[in-house]
Each structure stands twice: as structure tokens, then as C-alpha cells.
Specification:
Layout (H helix, E strand, L loop, with lengths): L6 H7 L26 H8 L14 H14 L3 E5 L2 H12 L5 E5 L4 H13 L3 E5 L4 H7 L4 E7 L11 H9 L4 E5 L4 H4 L9 E5 L13 E5 L1 H15 L5 H11 L2 H21 L3 E5 L22 E6 L3 H9 L5 E2 L9 E3 L11 H6 L7 E4 L5 H14 L2
Parallel strand pairs: 2-3, 2-4, 4-5, 5-6, 10-11
Antiparallel strand pairs: 1-7, 6-7, 8-9, 9-12, 11-12
Helix pairs in contact: 1-3, 3-10, 4-9, 12-14
The structure holds ligand 7XF.
């Protein structure tokens, strides 16, 4: 398989499989649920793992496998597994790695449904969970117990963009034989590659930047071949959160422009964050591209850009925050991120509504916090829309 030292080239060519007799430039979509055996013995051999070849698309599909090969190259891991959603990837990883009696160390700041899974479903199954500040290595060391099997985090964290030091986290876990899982959704492999810092499993909601066009819900896990194969043959196979071949094709198409899109998201993000920071109606902006953000010092070390997501608070209260969001004309009121369109949402009542009020406070998500996922429009137009909506609240 051909591979370049440059990620932009790999996003276009890396992992591309043989295209068969017709030689299409675009990857064929193997829109099939099942695969035909020549005879009973061949089917039996494939099920027994004694012969190659496909069996059934929940177990593996050539279009989905091409996306997996491409993502493994981009994240610098041996292998990857694709899922029907980001949450499908989270649950397949967690249930493959943890059983009753095991302990998970994670963050008190996570995407809302990941938090709900860890806070409600895992304890109900007898899995212990500690929620700590993963950006504080001492807090992580203190939380570890003899039965700790996994450390799970996001960086930057949805929605306040808190950044944790991946080298520090991987170092603590490695010396204790604990598996680390990092959700890299907000950066994409263009801006951050956690495996290069010693992280074991790298996770994406491929719904976001990887696909990039707001038309797919999908997930990916990248990591060592042995662990990825284990997940494919246990929790993915038996719980069934697989990606459809057509969705895999759309994500492959998205990957071809990922580097250009991330560059533009980052440029627009910086312009918009600097505009908001200077605006007299704005109290605080959370964006790692601003020098007063605690994550700024990790730019260059583990992140090559700050990306397109930021959160901010207005000086005025909840009613004005709502009026501001409702006053936007071009930016779309919607959850999700990483799309061509700038999207704006209210975390406390939307993406993080799975949190209790005291949990929201601990995670730094106030009732007035607004999250903005900057799109690919001309930055002037995004700023102009924010400007007119801010003017509208007086
Ligand atoms: O299952 P999904 O593809 O929606 O991915 C879940 C997920 C996993 N990790 C992170 C960091 C995420 O942000 C998400 C989904 N987040 C959307 C958002 O924050 O807008 C979900 C909308 S409710």
C-alpha cells in the first residue's frame, strides 16, 4: 500500500485499494449486505478465519475497509474500525475494554452522551467510574486504583476547549499498563495525532470534520491491530454499530479535502475568536488559539492549530444570550460541528443537557455559555452576522 510522508497527500491517496478491472478513480461502493461463497467449504473456512474473503457486511465490507485503511494511515496507527456513529465507536471500545468490577478514569468534562454513558450505563453494569480533571496529571495519578483498566478523555474538550497534555497522560497510563482512549473529533488527524504521543486508541465522531458536509452520522476508532481486531470481532460484531458502505464512501470523499477544510476552519476560527474577544458585549471566549487560553501552550507541541470550535459568554444574562442566538441570520442554529456552515448552539440545553445542574457547573458550562462551530464561509460574513445579532441585543 502506497504512503507519503505528507498527510495532505495521504488524505487523498493513502490506503486506496486496488480498483478492480474497470479502474475507477473514485472508490466503488460495495452496496451489498452479504457475499457469495463458491461452496459450503469456502463459507465454513471464512467463518473459521482459515480463508480470506468477505462474509457479511456487519463483519466487514470492502468500501468500509478502504476508509479504515485511510484513517489508520492518517492517525499513524496500525489499524482502524469504522462505526455507525461516534457513540457506536465509544461504546464498542469501552465494552471491549471494561467488564464488571473494572474501573474507568475519565473527565468530568465530556461530550454529553459520552458523559451519560459513563455516568449512568457503566455503573448500572458494575463498572466503577471516576470523573477527574485529566488536564491535571496529579489528579489522574491519585484517581488510579488497582482495577483501573482505561483512561478516557477528549482534547480539546466539548464545549469549553480545555486541552490536556497527551504525553503526560500516556506516560502515567503506560507505566501502569492502562489503556488510553482519546476522542480526537475536535482536531482531526490534520491538527493532532494522539498515537504519536503514546495514546493507544484514537476515536472520532466522523460525523464532524472527517466527513465535513453535514450528511453522515459515523464513527472511527484507530489503534493497534490486535486491539482493533478484537473490537471488530467482539463488540462491533455482536453489538452491531457498523458503518454503511455508502456512508463510508461519503467520509472517504470528505477526507480528500480534510487538510484544506481544517486550514480554513482554523483561519476563520482565529478571526472570529479575536473579534469576539474584543467585543464589548462579550465576557469571555474559550478558544486555544487565544494566548490567555490554558491550551495555548500546547499549540505547536501536540496541536498544529486550534480548529474551528469555540465557546463564549456574553456580559448580559440568559435572555440576551437566547436573543443573540435567535438574531443570527446566516449562521445556523444547530448542534454538530465541522461542517461548511457555521453552526451555533446552547450546550446547557442541547449537547450537554444530559448533565445535572451541579455537573454542568463543575464542567464549566454556564447557562449563558454559547458554542460556535465556525464554518468555511468568508470570515467577514461570519463576523458581520455576529455583529448584527450582538447589536440587536443592545
Ligand atoms: O455519535 P456521534 O457521531 O454524534 O458522535 C458523538 C460524539 C463523540 N465525541 C464528541 C467529541 C462529540 O462532539 C460527539 C457528538 N457531538 C455533537 C455535538 O457536540 O454537537 C452531537 C450533537 S447532540
Amino acid at each position: 500500500m502506497w504512503e507519503s510522508k505528507n498527510i495532505e497527500t495521504n488524505a487523498i491517496h493513502g490506503g486506496k485499494q486496488s480498483q478492480g478491472e474497470h479502474g475507477p478513480l473514485s472508490t466503488p461502493i460495495y452496496q451489498t449486505s452479504t457475499f457469495v461463497f463458491d461452496d459450503v467449504q469456502q463459507g465454513a473456512d471464512r467463518f473459521a478465519g482459515e480463508a480470506g474473503g468477505h462474509i457479511y457486511s456487519r463483519l466487514g465490507n470492502p468500501t468500509v475497509e478502504e476508509l479504515e485503511n485511510r484513517m489508520a494511515i492518517l492517525e499513524g496507527t496500525e489499524a482502524a474500525a469504522a462505526f455507525g456513529s461516534g457513540m457506536g465507536a465509544v461504546s464498542a471500545a469501552i465494552f471491549a475494554l471494561l467488564k464488571s468490577g473494572d474501573h474507568l478514569v475519565t473527565s468530568h468534562r465530556l461530550y454529553g452522551c459520552t458523559y451519560a454513558l459513563f455516568n449512568h450505563q457503566l455503573p448500572a453494569l458494575g463498572i466503577e467510574v471516576s470523573f477527574v480533571d485529566l488536564a491535571d496529571p496529579q489528579a489522574v495519578r491519585e484517581a488510579i486504583k488497582p482495577n483501573t483498566k482505561v483512561i478516557y478523555g477528549e482534547t480539546p474538550i466539548n464545549p469549553c476547549m480545555t486541552v490536556m497534555d497527551l504525553d503526560a497522560l500516556a506516560g502515567i497510563a503506560r507505566e501502569r499498563g492502562i489503556v488510553t482512549v482519546i476522542d480526537n473529533t475536535f482536531m482531526s488527524p490534520i491538527l493532532q495525532r494522539p498515537a504519536e504521543h503514546g495514546i493507544d486508541l484514537v476515536l472520532h465522531s466522523a460525523t464532524k470534520y472527517l466527513n465535513g458536509h453535514g450528511d453522515v452520522v459515523a464513527g472511527i476508532l484507530c489503534g493497534p491491530a490486535e486491539l482493533i481486531d478484537q473490537i471488530k470481532m467482539t463488540t462491533r460484531k455482536d453489538m452491531g454499530a457498523v458503518m454503511s458502505p455508502h456512508d463510508a464512501w461519503l467520509v472517504i470523499r470528505g477526507l480528500k479535502t480534510l487538510h484544506l477544510r481544517m486550514q480554513r476552519h482554523g483561519e476563520n476560527g482565529q478571526v472570529v475568536a479575536e473579534y469576539l474577544e474584543k467585543h464589548p458585549a462579550v465576557e469571555k471566549v474559550y478558544y486555544p488559539g487565544l494566548p490567555d487560553h490554558p491550551g495555548y501552550k500546547l499549540l505547536g507541541k501536540q496541536m498544529s492549530g486550534a480548529g474551528g470550535v469555540m465557546a463564549f459568554e456574553l456580559k448580559q444574562g440568559f435572555e440576551q444570550a437566547v436573543a443573540f442566538i435567535n438574531g443570527l441570520q446566516m449562521c445556523k442554529r444547530a448542534v454538530s460541528l465541522g461542517d461548511a456552515e457555521t453552526l451555533i448552539q446552547h450546550p446547557a440545553s442541547m449537547t450537554h443537557s444530559t448533565y445535572e445542574p451541579e455537573e454542568l457547573a463543575a464542567a464549566g458550562i454556564s447557562r449563558t455559555l454559547i458554542r460556535l462551530a465556525v464554518g468555511l464561509e468568508n470570515a467577514e460574513d461570519i463576523v458581520a452576522d455576529l455583529e448584527q445579532a450582538l447589536a440587536g441585543i443592545g
